[in-house]
Design brief:
Four copies of one chain form a homotetramer. Chain A is mainly alpha-helical and 237 residues long. Chain A has two domains: 122 residues, Voltage-gated potassium channels. Chain C (Four Helix Bundle (Hemerythrin (Met), subunit A)), CATH 1.20.120.350; 99 residues, Helix Hairpins, CATH 1.10.287.70. The first copy, chain A, is 76% helix and 0% strand. Chain A is built from eleven helices and no strands. Chains in contact: A-B, A-C, A-D, B-C, B-D, C-D. At the A-D interface, helix 2, helix 7, helix 8, helix 10 and helix 11 of A face helix 9, helix 10 and helix 11 of D.
């Protein structure tokens, strides 16, 4: 029989072979879970296909349950594991299956997606993430400033376009809130084309808003990139 | 009774508790004012909802009036406060309410939005803003150059597409001014889809304009980001 | 009477008062010329408006002719001025007016737009432009490489989408050339919405193309920005 | 008669005149091949035009065959050339022509496009590419991290919008896979306008997704640019 300490090593350390296989299996299961979850949303599934997906789901939840029980068994302090961040996620991922089996509560099954966070845990030891965190701290103040100014810019752009376009397109620019959607889609340059100014004043206003606003919205991205480059240099020297 | 000097400290210094609460309250009031202003633009408001919004507005304007009188009371030079930048904004934010009460002049109420500038005042002491200002001075010349070249590019793109598309789409590309709208929406990559070339010549022209123009329009953003990074480095050393 | 050498100073040196006024007047005339050119393209102009625009045009061309004759008069070597770059532009800007007066040849009048290049001449002494030129030389090789790879990427994206979408949308994706338009509008993220894949294969292909292609198309802009920052630093030290 | 070693020099070294001409001719042929391939996809070609294109194709394939035989003749180890990467590409580019002559198998002719890779071979000695490779290695870890996080972001954005919009637009947001297409087109800011949220919840969700997601998707580009700048600096010092 395998000792508890050996199981502990298997689950928590991935620097030896068995540990690596264990971690790899869990992550593959999470990815399969995400994929089968997406497949279930497809319309016009045949009964056979739905049955297969349900079986896959059942197997995955059973495996996740085994993992949960294993983690519970090897933890020294049971309560602290149950109420830890990952402990709660692990529980939330399996609980809905047992409670709602038979009932079609898709929203509850959304909790299973939380297991995607387990993948982020993988990144905890990644050097790149640590560098990114240091870079983020470096530019935190500027990010906050630009984030705040960007929100004010979005708001003022929405109010402005509302005054220019409301009379000409009352259906499209119904209120400042509807105009905020336009401001977001325009200043991020997504430009769906569901709302756009048609008056000369509204177009001129958009001109000014884009000239000023694009910089404000796009600068934070450049900031992160240059900060990362600086962090990398400091690391090397 | 509270002394004048104590009130002065309350209003102008936010480094002690009472001052912080005062500044915080004012900023929250400004945000509530912005939000209620946006809510008023919603169509199909019931009478009750409109009444509530009007009451919120009245309360806010009264509080802003108190603040204005307080600031006037504590200022040593009354006239200099009244005609100062923030003094005028504070006045413009409340005056329309008293002058137009009863009359539905939405445009006049726009002045209340000017109070959003008070929030910008908050940023005056922010290190990030000072760094940003220094970075902007560093790249001012380049920004002017690129801004100017970008405007010329927009104009030439508009003239070009007008000659290619006017014959094929006289409704869309009516004049150089209508084409300028196309040039703006295309070169900022917003791309609403309300205007686009359909002739082979117009498409080829767009190809060339995008290859050359995207760089011109997008470089200024990158400039600010790298300048900020440089300013930050100089600060550290 | 004003001496020839004084006129020479007036036209060619803008570091004293008279020279500044002369240069400023010419640039304002060029801008008025651009603006009246754009106004003429407006549809539904009344006869009076058209007459005014024609008069403005006549006055501008007469002033440009005076300037041309003045430049010719003060130049030591007449032939070398006539066949110089700016000499030819100055001539092309006025010649069509005399040759086609009465005839409505809009295209010929396009030559007047060439005078916009005179504005670029202004920038010749600008420090920012010189820095930009040095930065461009610094990254010339990378720009060529990315420009070339970007063109190949556009081509391969067009061929790919043609094979995925031609059968489903023969009207939209008629040929590789039509698909090239899609590739350009997608990879520059303009996204007009006049052409987009509807098959699952085409969408998956777009996914891959965007993930790879966006970097290739967007990197050159970042290159110029970082190179400018480097050039500025070298200048300071 | 030309010796084998001379032919070897002709084909493999482009630092003397004859070698340069040989390499240049091959690349021009590849470009003509790409262009005639594209022309063939045009609809409504007349019989004469189709005949000319077929002739151009035949001539090009014959010339490519000569080149293949020449490369085979001069290589010391015949089998190693045949099964080398470029040997297989050269063969795949000509083989379909002989096998399917008469048969209209456009897809098979796609292999000829593989010859475009020969152009990439040209870049092998380019300093800019080497610098780019070093820059890429420098930021490989960050690229992987951001690439992975970007994929997760796309997936979660798709699941989220599916839950908000599926009820309101069952035709557009049919499944998580359909929503993934929306997530891709929105987060890359292409914004075709074929799918967009219409519910208030969906719009608010898009707001949050764009604010967070744009940075994640756009950072890798900035990373490459700053890394290239660093590599260039290290080279100079």
């Amino acid at each position: 029989m395998i000792s508890k300490s050996k199981l502990h090593k298997l689950v928590h350390y991935s620097d030896h072979r068995a540990g690596k296989i264990f971690a790899f299996t869990i992550h593959i299961l999470i990815l399969i879970s995400l994929f089968s979850f997406s497949l279930e949303t497809l319309p016009n599934l045949t009964d056979t296909q739905y049955l297969i997906l349900h079986m896959v789901e059942t197997v995955i939840v059973i495996l996740f349950t085994c993992e949960y029980l294993l983690r519970l068994y090897i933890s020294k302090n049971k309560t602290s594991y149950i109420f830890s961040f990952y402990g709660l996620i692990d529980l939330l991922a399996i609980l809905p299956f047992y409670l709602t089996s038979g009932v079609d509560l898709r929203t509850v099954r959304l909790f299973r997606l939380l297991r995607v966070l387990r993948i982020f845990k993988l990144l905890k030891y990644s050097k790149a993430l640590q560098r990114f965190q240091r870079a983020f701290i470096l530019v935190k103040e500027e990010m906050l400033l630009f984030g705040f100014v960007a929100l004010i810019t979005l708001y003022l752009a929405a109010v402005g376009i509302y005054y220019f376009e409301h009379a000409a397109q009352p259906e499209q620019f119904q209120s400042v809130f509807h105009s905020l959607w336009w401001a977001l889609i325009t200043l991020t340059t997504v430009g769906y084309g569901d709302m756009y100014p048609i008056t000369a004043g509204g177009k001129l206003f958009t001109f000014i808003v884009l000239i000023i606003g694009l910089g404000i919205v796009a600068v934070p991205t450049g900031l992160i990139a240059t900060a990362l480059s600086q962090t990398r240099k400091e690391e090397q020297s």
